[in-house]
């Protein structure tokens, strides 16, 4: 019953990595007055423990962390470098086991209030009587925001798969094919190379997936998602992404197809077209690339995230794209770039009201897009690692429109 | 900016359907003392409004429901038969708008406490001062449990796609192919036919997806999921479902591949094999089919859900499969069947501690499986509509092992 074959084991999170991450969390906890943190949300406890088996992770300021495992205990022990991995039968056990292994339970406990369901929170209040709970998510996301070398490697593996899949896409695209058919072929090419298929996103009702294939007019269909171009989706139940429309020649086909590898996401967009695109799309595409360059110049450590967004907006407006930049009037997306890692919607967000200053070590997906009502969307999305000096481009796909 | 092409519009939820569902909810609300319900969770407000645009749905006992839409307002209006569809800028507006359209706000408001994040719940408490909140999920799930004729039609559409995909699977399976490659091809065949790709599951950290392809020994790898056979998955980040293992001849290949169509899920499992299977797997497969028949005889309206589970267990034990039935000792799944609809883990659950009596109109996915440590899993999963008299089988795939 040992875990799988080698490619799985090659992806285990190293012990040094876990130690580094927990140290980061502890110093943030200390700064925010948290005596310990109970981590319930899967991407978070995977980040700090190396396993995403069903578990709860307890991290105190000083003593050893304890990973409480509901299922599967054997795999959690194999996968996590943590020393204390214990089975969990019932939440009621938690206080006693914590006290016997890690001393007194502190007065202030962190817990992820932005994702933990209310009913489960009440249960924690019952079990840990007299303890004050504070939202630990800002502290956790601050640690997760700065990527380690190991994490950059994982994103690069996903970006490598993305490169291969977008290359393969050149031979898959055919006139008259439905958006969802093109998406299905993309998905197949990605998954056979190790794409994990699910794109994690934080928040109730957020559903992440890859097949955002929007051809011609579909590119101006607005959806529930806060993006410039939502697409129709297949039904009112899944009203975003690839739809039933048959792809035509000489129209922009936006392929915003994220790839997940060992939990890490590579997020990118390119425009495909069958035959030449009309001049106005080519011109708008060039403008998107100019805006990308300007955003990159502006996205320096210390700069407030929103300021970078405002710079992008200003240039788009100056160049005459006030109506279409980041969506149609009244329906615009509120950001031009976002952090990326274990989830597709991480901080920092280059968007409205985002006060957070950028730091070296963040990975940004920058995605300027311009929408033409009833005609389509053009734009580009690349990932960059922001460094103290300069940046490193993580996306490997050529920047040009992919004309077949 | 109108929504997509015809196959999308053909799937809109009819007005009579929405009316019926809201009537059901209102009578349950009245029985449970809820004056109104605020519906925040997407599968729920899609069920009662016909749209899954970003929204909050307010349903009082008597006055018209109000759908508050964050994004996209135009599509929500096109998709929902509800009469009052209003834009929502901020939660703060809610009480005033509700009072002006639907009269006084009742003293007891229902809200989905099992999925609503704690922080968002606190926000509702702030906005609706003095109101008592009660968990509305049991009431909502009770309505959703009994499927209407329209819903059965949607499940049948998904089951038809499943039939075609499992047929196509016969020509896709090849010796030495990795599990994830087979899964990728299945996914492609499903998606090009309209499979929506995401399998919704209720609860924090639940992640539903289709590619559960477990070959030989992978079928006895336990995962975080409460299922007889979890599989390795591709990495510690996604430790369930298809892995990297290369498929061999003469071993059972479990394909538990769910299909989603207009939001409704068709859930089924079959065993493929390359060449003949050893006798012990064939024998165990026959036992699974016997158990399925016994479960079907037992799953009558009025019978307690857990009792059906106990019947299944008893037969498996009598026939000598105590060790392997529903998983290995100490790691067994706690159910032999579950409700299915907009989510893959609906009530009723034929499982441990499930008091709920079965009713006519529920759709059950019944999935007896037997695990052989280190060797694999065999079993079957079919969906049935339970009727007052008898049942209707919804799965169209032939019941035999699919040998290629």
Give an account of the 3D structure.
The structure is a homodimer of 404-residue chains. With 404 residues, chain A is an alpha+beta fold. Chain A has two domains: 139 residues, Creatine Amidinohydrolase, Chain A, domain 1 (3-Layer(aba) Sandwich); 258 residues, Creatine Amidinohydrolase (Alpha-Beta Complex). In chain A, 34% of the residues lie in helices and 20% in strands. Chain A has eleven helices and 19 strands. In chain A, the strands form five sheets. In chain A, strands 4-3-2-1-5-6 form a six-stranded mixed beta sheet, sandwiched between helices. Chain A is elongated, with a radius of gyration of 22 Å. The model of chain A has no long low-confidence stretch (mean pLDDT 96). Chains A and B meet through α1, α4, α6 and α9 of A and α1, α4, α6 and α9 of B.
Secondary structure blueprint with pairings:
2 copies of one chain form a homodimer.
Chain A: H1 6-9, H2 15-31, E1 36-39, H3 42-49, E2 54-60, E3 66-71, H4 73-79, E4 84-87, H5 94-102, E5 108-111, H6 118-127, E6 132-135, H7 137-145, H8 149-172, H9 179-192, E7 212-215, E8 253-256, E9 259-261, E10 264-266, E11 269-273, H10 279-298, H11 305-318, E12 335-339, E13 346-351, E14 363-366, E15 369-372, E16 376-379, E17 382-386, E18 391-393, E19 402-403
Parallel strand pairs in A: 1-5, 3-4, 5-6, 11-19
Antiparallel strand pairs in A: 1-2, 2-3, 7-8, 8-11, 9-10, 12-13, 12-14, 14-17, 15-16, 17-18
Helix pairs in contact in A: 2-7, 8-9, 10-11
């Amino acid at each position: 019953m040992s875990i799988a074959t080698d490619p799985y084991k090659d992806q285990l999170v190293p012990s040094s990595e876990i130690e580094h991450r927990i140290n980061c969390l502890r110093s943030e906890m200390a700064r925010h007055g948290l005596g310990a943190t109970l981590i319930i949300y899967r991407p978070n406890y995977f980040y700090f423990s190396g396993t995403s088996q069903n578990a709860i992770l307890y991290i105190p300021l000083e003593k050893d962390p304890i990973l409480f495992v509901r299922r599967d205990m054997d795999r959690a022990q194999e996968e996590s470098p943590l020393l204390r991995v214990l089975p969990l039968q019932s939440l009621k056990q938690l206080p006693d086991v914590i006290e016997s292994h890690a001393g007194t339970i502190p007065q202030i406990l962190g817990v992820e209030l932005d994702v933990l369901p209310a009913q489960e929170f009440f249960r924690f209040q019952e079990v840990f009587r007299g303890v004050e709970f504070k939202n630990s998510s800002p502290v956790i996301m601050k640690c997760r925001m700065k990527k380690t070398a190991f994490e950059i490697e994982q994103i690069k593996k996903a970006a490598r798969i993305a490169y291969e899949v977008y290359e393969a896409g050149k031979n898959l695209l055919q006139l008259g094919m439905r958006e969802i058919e093109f998406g299905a072929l993309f998905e197949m090419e990605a998954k056979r190379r190790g794409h994990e298929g699910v794109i994690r996103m934080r928040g109730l009702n957020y559903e992440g997936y890859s097949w955002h294939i929007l051809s011609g007019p579909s590119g101006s269909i607005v959806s529930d998602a806060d993006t410039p171009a939502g697409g129709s989706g297949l039904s009112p139940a899944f009203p975003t992404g690839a739809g039933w429309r048959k792809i035509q020649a000489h129209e922009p086909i936006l392929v915003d197809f994220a790839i997940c590898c060992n939990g890490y996401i590579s997020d990118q967009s390119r425009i495909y077209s069958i035959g030449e695109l009309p001049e106005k799309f080519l011109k708008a595409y060039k403008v998107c690339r100019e805006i990308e360059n300007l955003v990159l110049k502006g996205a320096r450590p210390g700069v407030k995230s929103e300021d970078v967004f405002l710079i992008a907006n200003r240039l788009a407006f100056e160049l005459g794209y006030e109506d279409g930049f980041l969506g149609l009037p009244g329906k615009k997306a509120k950001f031009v770039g976002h952090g990326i890692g274990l989830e597709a919607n991480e901080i920092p967000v280059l968007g409205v009201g985002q006060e957070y200053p950028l730091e070296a070590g963040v990975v940004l997906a920058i995605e300027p897009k311009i929408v033409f009502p009833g005609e389509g969307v053009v734009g580009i999305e690349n990932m960059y690692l922001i460094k103290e000096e300069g940046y490193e481009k993580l996306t490997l796909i050529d920047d040009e429109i992919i004309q077949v």
